[in-house]
Amino acid sequence: xxxxxxxxxxxxxxxxxxxxxxxxxxxxxxxxxxxxxxxxxxxxxxxxxxxxxxxxxxxxxxxxxxxxxxxxxxxxxxxxxxxxxxxxxxxxxxxxxxxxxxxxxxxxxxxxxxxxxxxxxxxxxxxxxxxxxxxxxxxxxxxxxxxxxxxxxxxxxxxxxxxxxxxxxxxxxxxxxxxxxxxxxxxxxxxxxxxxxxxxxxxxxxxxxxxxxxxxxxxxxxxxxxxxxxxxxxxxxxxxxxxxxxxxxxxxxxxxxxxxxxxxxxxxxxxxxxxxxxxxxxxxxxxxxxxxxxxxxxxxxxxxxxxxxxxxxxxxxxxxxxxxxxxxxxxxxxxxxxxxxxxxxxxxxxxxxxxxxxxxxxxxxxxxxxxxxxxxxxxxxxxxxxxxxxxxxxxxxxxxxxxxxxxxxxxxxxxxxxxxxxxxxxxxxxxxxxxxxx
Length: 438
Description:
InterPro entries: HATPase_C_sf (IPR036890), NatK-like_C (IPR032834). By secondary structure, the protein is an alpha+beta fold. It has 12 helices and 8 strands. It folds into 2 domains: 3-211, no CATH class; 276-437, Histidine kinase-like ATPase, C-terminal domain (Heat Shock Protein 90), CATH 3.30.565.10. It has a 6-stranded mixed beta sheet with strand order 6-7-5-4-3-8. Strands 1-2 form a two-stranded antiparallel ribbon.
């Protein structure tokens, strides 16, 4: 058989292994958008076909490498991930593939080339399986600052160093030593990947602890709120007979005017709800009731416009993150407005439910300017930046994981945050629609 034809047959035979490796890597850290396995298989077969066409093209080395990385980037779009994590995953797995191809020390013969095709793919598969077992994270966390710089620079510099040294006269004279370079670069990239995973896992655990503390404060507030209602009901029940006896004696004595006044006062007492918010959804009611006290203490007017049915089947952690952090950000911004300016200090929360979707809009005025990063994220103005990692970034990440919509705008010293949560079902045992406006 023709040697060149045999090389191409072996190349095409091991090429599907690369598709398996990519799917194993992406599926470990991200959630696949394509639910149908058949459709996903067809897309990966299409990737294999385009990859084979690139291999047989006459493109130079660098454009060919860029085309292969572009194909991997296209495959990553089949999985849900943030932009930073998607780009890092693409750059890292591309570096792993390139370095693994160059790290197999086999003789430069026809048989050595064919064997290297198989061995390099097996090495990639082994490394990806090892990463799947060792990593703790799931493509979450913020790749920003020095951590993000190291994450992106390491694989990019590794590819650049490999290309630079491949043409070195020293390695042309001693080609048997060249595989040492990609092997070392491969080890460095794997160690940095695991280090980043550990750092982000620690950050995630810290964020979860802060979230649990926040949720506990809401639960404690709900407990005290329910306890106050129970105590009030018990007091009223205990005194009710005595009140009726007193009213009866006044009616019998002809003091109808005084009795009517006491009845009006009694109705006002029993009809007045101590709860600030009462939509029939304990999670929302508890959070807004708790936050209203914080707003009142800061002399911030809280304006509610809620049109929600009772007994919505809400994810407690999700709603706590969204409402808790959004309110805290709005409260801080409104608190920074000097009272002497005479400007309004308020937070307006609009929530309504339509077509199994929960729409949330939060508005607040602010003073000064808004700092925005190069990727569109808002930058904190707090001096302790590490202690304030939960905020709009955490809301955005939570909404992306929930498949919701997240958008913020600011103009005319007014900040607006808009959120939409889909597939929010109702407990059919609940009553009718409850609307509340303040």
